[in-house]
Structure formats: structure tokens, C-alpha cells
Amino acid sequence: MTISEQQNTAAPRQGLGLVHTLDGAERDALRARLRAAAAGGAAPARGACREAVEASALPLERIGATLSGGDIPFCLLRNLPVDALAQQWTVGPAPLASGLLLGVTAALGLTNFGYHEEKNGAILQDVHPIAGAEDSQSNAGRVAFHMHVESPFLPRAARPEVGALICLNNETATPTRIATVELVKRQLSARHVLALRQPDFRLRHDQSFEVNGYTLSVTTALLKEVDGRDETRCGIYAEGAHAAAQEAVDAWKRAADAVALDLVLEPGDLLLFNNYRCVHGRGAVEGRRWLKRVYSTRDTSLLSEGLISVWRAMAARHIDHSF
């Protein structure tokens, strides 16, 4: 099922944010600029990719305003140039898709980063099923991936502000699910909302992080108003410290599933979302699927050579650990 077909059934639950589709000529012009920026390499220069995107027909000002201050803070950019895959493709270099992720985020004034403890420190990350991890609640799994934010066990300064996913292959139309914090909150009782604002929830690290067999956890609120907007750090592994807290988090998860919009990303589709104010997930993956991902932020206080150490982030004294 295509994205437009999905809209007809899902739109009453969660409206779409900004959607922009390049026409054929605009796509081809951007492809030519990105190829020149890559100069035949597998890792195009970020500055050159930014210049290619800034010269394109993408509405960068509208995209940035949507992500930072829009009521529905996610954007879907369609018909972008991505790498053509052979019938029997394998995951490998994808300079066009990589260049788009680098160029779009740079043009929005964001800084890309990764984690020392996730995907071997990769900043440009490949998202696809991995043998042996089929049942995991992670981007390497095949089972449905529940609604969550990225890296919720870390303090806000160490979490991605914006997540970006670009599709190279999605042959069995696996949906990417997304919902805004505001819409999820509207489905809850005042009692549940108040409970979610209390520091009564335990989060632990995601399965994609390698932490030498340790369990990293934090006790925190799951909902907080920041700069006039509610944000969440509700992840896969969120548990209430008592019965009322567990009831509230269970209600949150049910509401997120109920209102989520299902987007079937096709090759050339790029989804950008505010990771503080949206939750996202994924349906079960039946066939081959390959997306590339990058995390971005404006807060670079914890970055060193483009990476954040989760150990240092959790121990840092100069940042706010309350949320």
C-alpha cells in the first residue's frame, strides 16, 4: 500500500506534517549536484552536500520551522534521488542517500552525531533486519517495533533532537509509524497526564547499545513541558515505580498505538521528525528493507569528534539530568 493510500485510513487518527514532493526535473538537478559533491567517493563531504541541498527546490525554511515549532513536527520529503539497487542488492555504500542525510540536516543548521556504544560509532547508520536479531525490539529486528523515542535513557542533551530516515528499499511495504506527543496526550485522562509528569518511571538502555553487559537505567518523568511544548522520553523499556505509574505508562503506549500514522516509505522518501515531540515505531518486516539513518542536534555540548559516550553523558555534571 502506498503512502497516499495509507493517508485515507490513518489521517483521522494523526494528521500529516509538512509533505513536499520534488518533480522529476528538480530531483534530477539535485542528483547531479550530489554526485558532484560525492566526487566518486562513498562518504561525500558534508559541506558540499549542504551546498547541493541549499541550491535545490526543497523548502528548507518551512522544514526547519515545522521541526522546531510546528504543531505536527515531522516532515516527509518525497521523490528524492537515491542510489539505484541491483535486484540482488546487499547493504553497502550509498553515496546519494548519505549525501542527502548529511546535506539536508546541515542545511537546517543541525549537527550530526552518533554514539560510541551504538553501531560501532557510526554516524550514518544502516537500518535493516540482521540475522539473529529478528525478535529484538531494535532497528535490527523483524517483529513490530513499538512506539518510542530515540535514546530515552539518556538526558535530553544527549538525545537526538531530530531523527532522519531515508528509504532505499521497502519491498513488502513495512509501515513506519509516527505520532505527536500532543495528540497522544489528548487521549489520556488528566490523572494519567499528571502521573506521567512525576519522576516515577524507570528507563533502561536500548538493545542497540553495547555496554559490556551492564544495564544503564534512570528514574525520571516521562512527560515534561520544555519551552512551552510537552516532550516525552517514553521508550520501549519504560516501567512504573508503582501501580498508578504503571497504569499511566500502559495508557500512554495504548494511546500512541491508537493514533499513530502509518507511512509506507518508498525509495526516495525522507522522513524527518522532532525526537523530543514525536514517538515513532515500525510494523513487522517481512521482506527486504533498507533505510539509512542519522541523528542530529543543535546542542553540541556533549559531542567529541561527532560522537557521544553514554557513560560520560550519564555522569556529566554540567547538564540537566531531570529530563
From TrEMBL:
All residue ranges annotated as the TauD/TfdA-like domain in the record: 242-295
Presence of keyword Oxidoreductase: yes
Pfam family, any one: TauD
Database matches in Gene3D superfamilies: Clavaminate synthase-like
Biological process per Gene Ontology, one example term: antibiotic biosynthetic process
PANTHER family cross-referenced by the UniProt entry: GAMMA-BUTYROBETAINE HYDROXYLASE-RELATED, TAUD_TFDA-LIKE DOMAIN-CONTAINING PROTEIN
UniProt protein name: Taurine catabolism dioxygenase TauD, TfdA family
Organism: Pseudoduganella namucuonensis
